[in-house]
Amino acid sequence: MKNFSTGGVVLLAATLFSGVAAAQAPQPACTFRADAPDQHQVAPGDTLWDISARFLDKPWCWPRVWGMNRAEIANPHWIYPGQIVYFDRAAGRLRLANQLAPATDVPGTVRLSPRVRTEGLGKDAVRSIPPGAIEPFLTQPLIVEADELKNAPRIIATPENHVFIGKDDKAYVRGNLNGGTSFQVFRPGKPLIDPETKAVVATEAFYLGTLKLLREAAPGSDVHTFVVASAKEEMGVGDQLMQMPPTPMQHYVPHPPEGKIAARVLAIYNGVTHAGQNQVVSINRGKLDGLDIGAVLQLYHKGQTVKDPGASKGWHNLGNPQVKLPDEEVGSLFIFRVFRHVSYGLIMQVTEPVVVGDVARTPE
């Protein structure tokens, strides 16, 4: 395959995103890496992010170099080990192939024939990001939004007044089950405070295990009988229940948010003060703010406000002695679970540790 120059290859959203409303905020330009390879054969253990990073300066540009619209971003984009991703430099696109076919127009060369595999459930397809880093956060309610706690069923008693119960023990639960039979058990932890509004937007929850319904409450009673199906931690009276969530989608296409997002880091999992690559943080923006699964945000250390000693002396005619320093970019955040007001993100490509209060916003 010929080795073409990648310099100056810029992809504009207006030409590559079909069907995007004209009123939508303009998308930042995407560029291929100067050292982008001609092709990459997908190997076991590859992720969509890794493959994107081989070709692109910004891995979240993946949908644009495939010419994907918003509807296609929401659907799984199956790519399998053994297939070949190749760089069509003339078109400024990436293409997918899993077989070589003889070229008909250039003697002595071969051309990759695109053939996207979409059948099946994608069990063996490469993941977008390392699955092990986010597995607990896909199914466990480690963040609970405030109004979800109001009417949550709760354990009110245990057999023989045991302080704690474990696997196969019974638990007596009071509350509206809303037709559910399988529940997760959690214990509310510390409230999460929005760094901007200072309001409580969610509560950290300690995941304890799962309960399965044995007997619904008899007529005239509102106490249900459950059995502990699994126990990560001991559970007891006062612990609360949430219905088991549906099996989450684990294949996401990395992409910038559709609109402008300006968020702050709420918390770092495990209560540590600093987070690095492949660690999970929560931010104070969610579905109601326009975030969706697979959205990528840029992370910044928030610029401090400092005093300019020269301003009081009239230097530069600036007057105001207080000045805010620029925010400094430190990495990327891949959103993989979205609630109404809060989201989980996996830190990608970080250059400095991320701290609570850092800024996360739409890529520029």
TrEMBL record:
Alphabetically ordered keywords of this record: Signal
InterPro entries, per database record: Bact_Kbp, LysM, LysM_dom_sf
Secretion signal span: 1-23
Domain of life: Bacteria
Occurrences of domain LysM (ranges): 38-87
UniProt cross-references to SUPFAM superfamilies, sorted A to Z: LysM domain
PANTHER family: PHAGE-LIKE ELEMENT PBSX PROTEIN XKDP (PTHR34700:SF4), POTASSIUM BINDING PROTEIN KBP (PTHR34700)
The protein's name: LysM domain-containing protein
Source organism of the structure: Pseudoduganella plicata
Phylogenetic lineage: Bacteria, Pseudomonadati, Pseudomonadota, Betaproteobacteria, Burkholderiales
